[in-house]
Amino acid sequence: MRYGTPQEGYGKETIDPLDLYGIDDDPPRLNESKETLNRQEIVDVLSPSPFDEQGQRHLRLAGIHEYEATRLPPRLFYICRWFGRIIDQPASIWWAGGYVSLHSALLNQIEWYLDQSDKNISSEAKHLWTLLIHKFGNSPKSDHSQYHSIAKIKTRGWSALLRYEFEESIRPFIVSKRPFKANSAPPEGSWNELGSGAVVALEVKFPAQGIDELDVAPEQLYQHFRAVRDGLERGAALLKALEVRYWRTASFETDSRPGERYLSGSDRYLHWIRRLFDQLSIADPSRVRADFLLWPQDEEYFFDKLKLHAWAKSFFSGKEVGEGLLRLDEQSFWNGYNRRELLHLLRIRWNDLPRSPRKKIENRIVAGTTVRPEEAPLDARKRRASTAASMLGWLSRNECELSRTTSKRLPNLRAQVQDWNDAWELTADHSMDGRTGWVSIKDDPGNIIDLPISETIAAAEQNSTRPFMEFTEYRPFNGLVKQRPQRALAALAFQARRNNFPLRA
Prior knowledge:
β5, α20 and β6 (472-474) form a beta-alpha-beta unit. α3 (74-85) packs parallel to α5, α10 (265-283) packs across α11 and α20 packs across α22 (485-496). Helices cover 48% and strands 4% of the residues. The protein is mainly alpha-helical.
């Protein structure tokens, strides 16, 4: 830690851990051009010292409890005792959060002071220590343990023991690190002045890499699905414990727009269980339908999106689909990252829905979301009208016959949006997934090549755009230069005589 990388202080002086925490015998920090500092020259006070009592009587290859085999010398044990007494300080959590593991003796002291001492510990510290202790006690030995399990299954075949090992390897887990803005030194201030994000950065990892390499036999399919479903429930519980908000999930089916989308670990995990659900729906529909009843009812991260996908299956009646949609809470129903699944479900099952729930769904869309606390009434009205009009218009365009009342209200909803564009109805089901890709240049001058010289530059500037979420940049003036350079030069000269020098046309 003392030789950690110096960090710029965001408007303050550069923070050098060696200046803050260095001890008298520390050698100076070397320049990058010099050889790497010999770590034997650095005194690590958290490791055994040559002056410590070297008790090796419990060192043995077998028959010894792990705690006895890793017993600390007295000096380090007293540091553990001291650390237990200061666990209410934000710096203690910041320090621990930067490590993948803590010695069992130190963890025992932390837990003892949390659970059994009469020390008054703040609720913020208790909460973060609870999460860190869970992390230290439940993290896998490797971030990619599933690869080892998959390799064993490939060579040895499925067995009960390997199935349990695989289930353990795909369980989501918590990881921690020090905050980016406080990587080199702990944050200053009390719990009243600091948020948890300023002390430690916590996130949930979903081990989904390598899953495409695994072939699952039909007789193993349900057990495999159940293991992944249990993992998804565990991941959701961990996210809730971390108090994660504004969670995003990638659409199950991407739209036709160009570019490659990025799938996070949690997205790959969710898409994994969706593929297994589809396979099981064909192989054993009655079983997957029964499993559906076991899914969490009030989970806000994954399962409502998965339900929107599941209800499209024919083994759910229209009545069940309608009742399920009306039971969705406000956040799930209006979540933009669920919009594509919601609209596609309605398109597939619209004619199967009984008249009453279908009318209630229309009314729910027309009524819109609740007004946000910071939102002006006029802005809220416009937003709700725009969302309702685009969704209902999309349904109408996709052969979903709306009720007579809703059909009459649709033009009024469009009229409430001053800059309404009918194209919004066509794109209402577009996913909100991020995309990456190469931007191409299109320099077709067709829109400007025959215009009068006096109008060429203004038209070129107007048509030189890169539309939002597209991977094409339009530069018609470049094409004019290539095809009719004299005309392009004349247009620039015309603007220059009027002291107008466009930076980009």
